[in-house]
Amino acid sequence: MNASRLAWPARALALCFAIGAAVYPGFGTVDLAVPIAAPSPAFVQASMLEGGWGLVFSLLVAVPFLVVFLNPAARAAAFGEVIVVGTVIGLTGVLAGQPAFLAVTAILGLCVGVLAAMLRGWTTAGRPRTWHLVLAVAPFAGTAAATVLGEAAMAAWLGGVGAVVALAVVLSRWGAAPDPRSRLPLALAAAALPWIWYAADMIRAAEEGREPMEITVGLNHWPVQAALGITLVALAAWGHPIPAVTSGIASMSFGALAMGYPDHSASPGTSWGVAALIWGLAVLPWGFLRRRARSASGGRRCRSNDRSDVCGTRFRRAEVPPPV
Q1: Which residues contact 91 (CB under 8 A, 6 or more apart)?
Q2: Comparing 299 with 45, which gets the higher pLDDT?
Q3: CA distances (Å), 231 to each of 47, 80, 238, in order?
Q4: pTM score of the predicted model
Q5: Mean pLDDT over residues 269-290, rounded?
């Protein structure tokens, strides 16, 4: 069976994987809503752990799967991002003495493998559709309705869902392959070193059994918090605009949470929260700039011997007409 016949089944499966990461059993957007919607006393001390889990499974896992659903041609970067996230989660789990996290690595790898096999040979780029816009706007309409009805928790959750979908709609247009020279500037890479320190502290917290012991689907949140720090550095350093933008937004969101909950468990405090916010703000435009650089040449780098339609106009102008 050819790729065109498997395209829509694969896209439907990618949507299911996104829902699984964002809603159940991943609880990405659910946990992300906890620190936003004035958490109850039972959750307030774990606000950073809830938010970190939510950022990983909503922004860094659900968004890439949604990108594949919206535009399978952008699957290379989306699959790569999910593989990076899954690998780092397994690594931090093992380092924290909790090898059960390798199950997350295996599941995410299996999801990517199935989709990659189904979409093998697919080259047609998806076009913007009206239903893409409807899909992005609908959750925000629900947020407004829930706010009017006084349902703060539901409003926060729907707002998170809307943000995830809207981001995926934007990124689904960015299917170009990464430029091998588009690496994160050295200054930004060096500024990412505190993320490694933070990840090491979260691994120690998991080893020590530091409170609170927040558990989701049988997994402790502390190793995922460590994975968040390492993953943000890896994705930002990749060079592709899709992971750069998602890591920048995740870093800014983490910084905002740290500033809002400076004295809570897993929070680096206000100062480091501001630093994370600034780092994310610096990485985010880098992703957009790489996208603009790719778009200027149709996603390709023109070479001196390239006479294709993408670069041909440039060289046709430079050609000297033959003598009469």
Answers
A1: 227, 230
A2: 45
A3: 20, 12, 11
A4: 0.86
A5: 84
